[in-house]
Amino acid sequence: MEIQRYNSVEAFRADVFGLLMENEAENNLLISMLTESSAKYSDDWLMATVVDRGNISLAALCSKPFNLLLFEPKSSDRVAVEMLAREIRRIGFGVPGILAESGLARRFAGAYSTDGSGKHHISMVVMYLDRLHAYDIAPGYFREIGERDMFFVPFWEHAFGEDCRVHVSPLPEVVSRIRARLGKGKHFLWEDGIPVSQAVYGRGTPNGAIINMVYTPPHLRGRGYATAVVGELSRMLLENGKAFWGLFADACNPVSRNIYRKLGYRDIGIFDDIRF
Question: Does 190 share its domain with 60?
Fold first, then answer.
């Protein structure tokens, strides 16, 4: 068993992409990072595999300040996880956290933070849709964001990050990121007299699309607006040829998961986010 490190996205992708595609929806984060045109190696990237007799037992990618992403084609023994943890400590990379399938994340955290300093941050359910169910549509209509929405949408996205306990970028970065989506069929609102809910087509895989940034202001919740905007965005992408939609939902938020289940989304895995 040995560790292979990479300084080329292309080389890493060539070795792991086929394995990732065997579970495309669950591996959407890694797949999208390796297929986005903006994916360029820098000194802040860690890419590695643990290889056992010619077969990959474990693959790892970390782009700071984001968490280490891990993937194992099948449940590996503790040796591969411990080897990777030791190597990361040896090179002094300083992993900020781990995001992976729950069992794998906990095994790595135990091997990496030998002093027990790893803290569970959040568990997320990976949800999958390939056929949209019928649903009651809330009053209002679906539309793409425009320049006229820039006075409030960045604040919604910032609030989403705080609500969901995920990385929150400084507001100027949020504004820049949203401007880059304008006119590209990425960011949508539900409007009922005023804008009331949003959803974003966040990233893609060869056959699927991932939804994120679903947000309704607290005083407008419980009226079916999130169901409406997610449902219409899901319908649009499926009609445009995507085979499936995927998303991450807070495992401790049954309200949001029930919204998605009404639309036809189903659970396919649980990921843990553990911080060091």
Answer: no
